[in-house]
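Thread: "does anyone have the structure for this chain?"

Original post by V.I.:
We have the sequence but no experimental structure in hand. Need at least a predicted one for the grant figures.
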Amino acid sequence: MSKPTAVSLSIFRYLFASVAEEMGVTLGRAAYSPNIKERLDFSCALFLGDGRMLAQAAHIPVHLGAMPASVQAAIAQCAPFAPGDVVIVNDPYQGGNHLPDITLVSPVFFSNPPSVIGNPSSSDSEPPSVSVTMSPPHPVTPSPHFFVASRAHHADVGGMSPGSMPLSTEIYQEGIIIPPIKLVAAGQRNEAVWQLILRNVRTPDERNGDLAAQLAAHAIGQRRLEEIVDRYSLADALAHAEALIEYAKTLTETAVTHIPDGRYTFTDYLDDDGQPDSPPIPICVTITVDGSQMHVDFTGTAPAVRGNLNAVPAIAQSAVAYCLRCAALALVQTDLPMNEGAFAPLTITIPPGSLLDPPPPHAVAAGNVETSQRITDAVFGALAQALPQLIPTASQGTMNNLTFGGKHPGTERPFAYYETIGGGAGAGPTANGGSGMHVHMSNTLNTPVEALEYSFPLRLEQYSLRPNSGGAGQHHGGDGLVRSIRFLTPVTVTVTSERRQRGAYGLQGGEDGRPGQNRLVQGETTTELPGKFTRQLDAEDVLQIETPGVGVGRIILFAKSANQNFARCDHIIAVKVL
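Reply from O.Q.:
Generated one for you, tokens below.
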């Protein structure tokens, strides 16, 4: 075994990252649903055999802290493993984050030479199966050396409304709940589990294809790991994995030392929980920085609510890790490996029974998408007191979740769809804010108009920027979007959106952004809709969603350079442009 050097460490860093990236490419290309193949609403990652994250592709930030929880749950409940095993889970209270996000976890062994075994079984009514590469079921070392994992947002997993993002009051209303179980055992697909899942969703063909795409991604992940080990040896791969985790830990600790020691507090509010007479919901954060360590305390945050904005602890961990990573990337002026070491300087306190640690069976569908965004705003608001020269104003603060479903005219075949919609990103001292972006915990793409109209009976009548929705100041905040959809058949629509009551906050004296608006247009009649609703719409009804603009700040997106001047750091906020 060779001792890791700076050069070899860099090589292995990108080798491991490429495993997760190529898994993502495979999943996006093989998926059936627009939400996965067009919007890229998924994440792929590589873990060591003890469950520590080794590499995650630059996919969805809200999965940063939640993916490790799924792997740990798989280890705790499904060990011992054999080659060819694949664990499936979506239970938020057992390693998931919300039910539409289905996670697969596969162990990878190196005790026997790799080989290819046959396709997973499939019934005559299903689309063709995908070839999956796995190790043969021979006796091997009890513990795997690695895990590969994927998490994809499935457009429907059952529940009380199409798209599985209902205005629920308990988790049982949100869809099928899958605890960590083996979907594939020793290379053989568990047909009973597979059919049970498909029987509980509105669009079984899509789910069949998307799950098969995840299995294909895992096959690619294992194959690439085998190629790395064949070329460099298992001992070298594991040694460099440990060194990379230590390197990320050192870099993140160095970044934290650049944050002034102190205690910083901030409170932001969710509009409501979607239930009648709901008051604003506070999320309180106190950040304590002491040398190379950071502690984040959510004491003071609201208790668990009746609606579905509750978020399991892994979501809060993801949001905090994302904020720290954004700041660290700028403070150390270098790219930071995404692995377990990046979380080492961070500790988090979440009050039991609160909005961020609800007891089951509290509803959690929107906690992953909306509460995560407000946690991010609150954490950045606190960090802005410590790093006013660096931290951005609040971005749009919502994912503007839209789900709808119905039946195709003529065929009566059911359909269901889910998407998030971009908005404004924060402004800085040298430039206006970005407009029409998916920001912070979203980081997906939009669904192109052509793909949307091809797949569903609707017409997209307007998709444009929302002029002057960003706040005014030295530099304008980014503008939101306008997305108007005319449905060509009756549908059930659910919208879960935030920043409809109060706009995204500004900093350094800048104005807040304009709140978003939701409207229903029926002929000559226009009806204002709340931020969260479910409605039955008729053919020719038009749903119009105007997403929030953002606040303004005078000092943003800057980081100290070695000579103590300020250097531009454009990569602090991870977004994908429409």
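V.I.: this helps a lot. The chain has two domains: 6-246, 388-558+569-578.
O.Q.: and The radius of gyration is 23 Å.
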